[in-house]
Amino acid sequence: MERNGPAGPESRPHYDGAMDHDDGTDLVGCAPCDMTRGRVPLPGGRIHGTPRWLVVHVLGAFGLGALAVVPRRHVVHVAALTGQEAAELGGLLRDVAAVVTALTDPVQVYTCQWSHTGGEAAHVHFVLQPVRRSDMERHPGRLGPALQSAMFDDGDRPDPAAVESFAEQARAEFARQAAGRPTGVEDSS
Protein backbone atom coordinates (compact mmCIF):
# COMPACT_ATOMS: atom_id res chain seq x y z
CA MET A 1 0.00 0.00 0.00
CA GLU A 2 1.19 3.47 -0.83
CA ARG A 3 1.04 6.44 1.55
CA ASN A 4 -0.52 9.57 0.18
CA GLY A 5 -1.01 13.10 1.55
CA PRO A 6 -4.44 14.42 2.54
CA ALA A 7 -6.84 15.15 -0.29
CA GLY A 8 -8.41 18.59 -0.53
CA PRO A 9 -12.10 19.25 0.18
CA GLU A 10 -12.85 19.60 -3.51
CA SER A 11 -12.02 15.91 -4.04
CA ARG A 12 -14.20 14.69 -1.20
CA PRO A 13 -17.77 13.73 -2.05
CA HIS A 14 -20.23 15.26 0.42
CA TYR A 15 -17.38 17.02 2.25
CA ASP A 16 -18.92 18.41 5.40
CA GLY A 17 -16.53 21.30 5.89
CA ALA A 18 -15.07 19.97 9.14
CA MET A 19 -11.36 20.61 9.38
CA ASP A 20 -9.16 17.59 8.72
CA HIS A 21 -6.73 16.91 11.53
CA ASP A 22 -4.64 14.18 10.07
CA ASP A 23 -0.93 13.79 10.12
CA GLY A 24 -0.75 13.13 6.40
CA THR A 25 -1.30 9.43 6.95
CA ASP A 26 -3.48 8.11 4.19
CA LEU A 27 -2.92 4.55 3.07
CA VAL A 28 -3.75 3.87 -0.57
CA GLY A 29 -5.31 0.40 -0.72
CA CYS A 30 -6.91 0.74 2.72
CA ALA A 31 -10.67 0.47 2.09
CA PRO A 32 -11.74 3.18 4.60
CA CYS A 33 -8.98 5.56 3.42
CA ASP A 34 -9.88 4.94 -0.22
CA MET A 35 -13.61 5.44 0.41
CA THR A 36 -13.30 8.57 2.54
CA ARG A 37 -10.73 10.12 0.17
CA GLY A 38 -12.93 9.59 -2.87
CA ARG A 39 -10.72 7.02 -4.61
CA VAL A 40 -13.49 4.40 -4.66
CA PRO A 41 -17.27 4.85 -4.76
CA LEU A 42 -18.95 5.47 -1.42
CA PRO A 43 -22.74 5.16 -1.72
CA GLY A 44 -24.29 7.89 0.37
CA GLY A 45 -20.99 9.77 0.59
CA ARG A 46 -19.92 11.41 3.80
CA ILE A 47 -22.99 11.70 5.97
CA HIS A 48 -21.64 13.61 8.95
CA GLY A 49 -18.33 14.56 10.46
CA THR A 50 -16.42 16.12 13.30
CA PRO A 51 -12.91 17.54 13.05
CA ARG A 52 -11.45 14.06 13.57
CA TRP A 53 -14.16 11.55 12.56
CA LEU A 54 -16.40 10.82 9.56
CA VAL A 55 -19.74 9.01 9.44
CA VAL A 56 -20.53 6.92 6.36
CA HIS A 57 -22.97 4.14 5.51
CA VAL A 58 -21.57 0.63 5.93
CA LEU A 59 -20.93 -1.11 2.62
CA GLY A 60 -21.35 -4.61 4.06
CA ALA A 61 -24.37 -6.79 4.70
CA PHE A 62 -25.47 -5.28 8.02
CA GLY A 63 -28.67 -3.79 6.62
CA LEU A 64 -29.88 -0.41 5.52
CA GLY A 65 -29.08 2.21 8.13
CA ALA A 66 -25.86 0.65 9.46
CA LEU A 67 -23.41 3.52 9.83
CA ALA A 68 -19.66 3.52 10.37
CA VAL A 69 -17.71 6.04 12.42
CA VAL A 70 -14.23 6.27 10.87
CA PRO A 71 -11.22 8.33 11.97
CA ARG A 72 -10.15 10.83 9.30
CA ARG A 73 -6.56 9.68 9.60
CA HIS A 74 -5.35 6.14 9.05
CA VAL A 75 -5.07 4.53 12.51
CA VAL A 76 -5.27 0.80 13.24
CA HIS A 77 -5.49 0.57 17.04
CA VAL A 78 -7.92 2.23 19.44
CA ALA A 79 -4.95 2.63 21.80
CA ALA A 80 -3.29 4.80 19.12
CA LEU A 81 -6.11 7.36 19.02
CA THR A 82 -5.06 10.84 20.04
CA GLY A 83 -6.61 12.40 23.12
CA GLN A 84 -8.63 14.67 20.83
CA GLU A 85 -9.91 11.73 18.77
CA ALA A 86 -10.87 9.86 21.92
CA ALA A 87 -12.60 12.93 23.38
CA GLU A 88 -14.80 13.31 20.28
CA LEU A 89 -15.67 9.63 20.01
CA GLY A 90 -18.09 9.06 22.89
CA GLY A 91 -20.47 11.88 22.05
CA LEU A 92 -20.30 11.06 18.35
CA LEU A 93 -21.20 7.40 18.96
CA ARG A 94 -24.18 8.57 21.03
CA ASP A 95 -25.27 11.01 18.31
CA VAL A 96 -24.94 8.41 15.54
CA ALA A 97 -26.91 5.88 17.61
CA ALA A 98 -29.64 8.50 18.10
CA VAL A 99 -29.85 9.13 14.34
CA VAL A 100 -29.91 5.39 13.54
CA THR A 101 -32.63 4.89 16.18
CA ALA A 102 -34.73 7.80 14.89
CA LEU A 103 -34.61 6.57 11.29
CA THR A 104 -34.90 2.79 11.73
CA ASP A 105 -36.85 2.15 14.96
CA PRO A 106 -34.65 -0.83 15.86
CA VAL A 107 -34.94 -3.23 18.77
CA GLN A 108 -31.30 -2.34 19.49
CA VAL A 109 -28.40 -0.52 17.88
CA TYR A 110 -25.32 -2.72 18.02
CA THR A 111 -22.15 -0.67 18.43
CA CYS A 112 -18.98 -2.57 17.71
CA GLN A 113 -15.47 -2.29 16.37
CA TRP A 114 -14.02 -5.09 14.25
CA SER A 115 -11.08 -3.85 12.21
CA HIS A 116 -8.81 -6.42 10.73
CA THR A 117 -8.15 -7.70 7.23
CA GLY A 118 -6.44 -10.95 6.44
CA GLY A 119 -5.50 -11.45 10.08
CA GLU A 120 -3.83 -8.04 10.34
CA ALA A 121 -4.96 -4.90 12.15
CA ALA A 122 -6.77 -2.53 9.78
CA HIS A 123 -8.19 1.01 9.81
CA VAL A 124 -10.26 1.42 12.98
CA HIS A 125 -13.98 1.94 12.41
CA PHE A 126 -17.00 1.59 14.66
CA VAL A 127 -20.18 0.09 13.20
CA LEU A 128 -23.57 1.18 14.53
CA GLN A 129 -26.02 -1.39 13.22
CA PRO A 130 -29.78 -1.20 13.66
CA VAL A 131 -31.09 -4.62 14.63
CA ARG A 132 -34.70 -4.95 13.61
CA ARG A 133 -37.21 -7.58 14.72
CA SER A 134 -37.16 -8.87 11.11
CA ASP A 135 -33.37 -9.46 11.35
CA MET A 136 -33.89 -11.58 14.45
CA GLU A 137 -36.80 -13.47 12.87
CA ARG A 138 -34.68 -14.35 9.82
CA HIS A 139 -32.01 -15.74 12.14
CA PRO A 140 -33.81 -17.22 15.17
CA GLY A 141 -31.74 -17.58 18.31
CA ARG A 142 -28.79 -15.69 16.84
CA LEU A 143 -27.96 -12.43 18.55
CA GLY A 144 -24.89 -10.22 18.88
CA PRO A 145 -21.88 -11.39 16.87
CA ALA A 146 -23.77 -14.54 15.80
CA LEU A 147 -26.50 -12.38 14.21
CA GLN A 148 -23.91 -10.18 12.52
CA SER A 149 -22.14 -13.27 11.21
CA ALA A 150 -25.40 -14.72 9.85
CA MET A 151 -26.25 -11.42 8.14
CA PHE A 152 -22.74 -11.20 6.71
CA ASP A 153 -23.01 -14.79 5.43
CA ASP A 154 -26.37 -13.94 3.78
CA GLY A 155 -24.54 -11.25 1.82
CA ASP A 156 -27.62 -9.05 1.40
CA ARG A 157 -26.18 -5.60 0.80
CA PRO A 158 -28.51 -2.61 0.65
CA ASP A 159 -29.30 -1.22 -2.79
CA PRO A 160 -27.05 1.81 -3.50
CA ALA A 161 -30.10 3.99 -4.29
CA ALA A 162 -31.61 3.07 -0.91
CA VAL A 163 -28.29 3.93 0.77
CA GLU A 164 -28.25 7.33 -0.99
CA SER A 165 -31.79 8.00 0.22
CA PHE A 166 -30.99 6.90 3.77
CA ALA A 167 -27.86 9.09 3.78
CA GLU A 168 -29.94 12.15 2.87
CA GLN A 169 -32.40 11.34 5.66
CA ALA A 170 -29.50 10.86 8.09
CA ARG A 171 -27.98 14.23 7.15
CA ALA A 172 -31.34 15.88 7.81
CA GLU A 173 -31.69 14.05 11.13
CA PHE A 174 -28.19 15.07 12.25
CA ALA A 175 -29.10 18.69 11.42
CA ARG A 176 -32.44 18.40 13.23
CA GLN A 177 -30.81 16.96 16.33
CA ALA A 178 -28.06 19.59 16.29
CA ALA A 179 -30.68 22.34 16.03
CA GLY A 180 -32.32 20.99 19.18
CA ARG A 181 -29.20 21.72 21.24
CA PRO A 182 -28.17 25.28 22.12
CA THR A 183 -25.03 26.27 20.19
CA GLY A 184 -21.85 25.90 22.22
CA VAL A 185 -23.53 24.02 25.06
CA GLU A 186 -22.30 20.52 25.77
CA ASP A 187 -24.71 17.86 26.96
CA SER A 188 -23.80 17.15 30.58
CA SER A 189 -25.69 13.87 30.84
Automatic annotation (TrEMBL):
Hydrolase listed as a keyword: yes
Keyword Kinase annotated: no
Keywords: Hydrolase
Positions with biased composition (Basic and acidic residues): 11-21
Region listing for Disordered, in residue ranges: 1-21
Protein name per Swiss-Prot or TrEMBL: Diadenosine tetraphosphate (Ap4A) HIT family hydrolase
GO molecular function, one term: hydrolase activity
Species of the source: Umezawaea tangerina
InterPro entries xrefs: HIT-like_sf
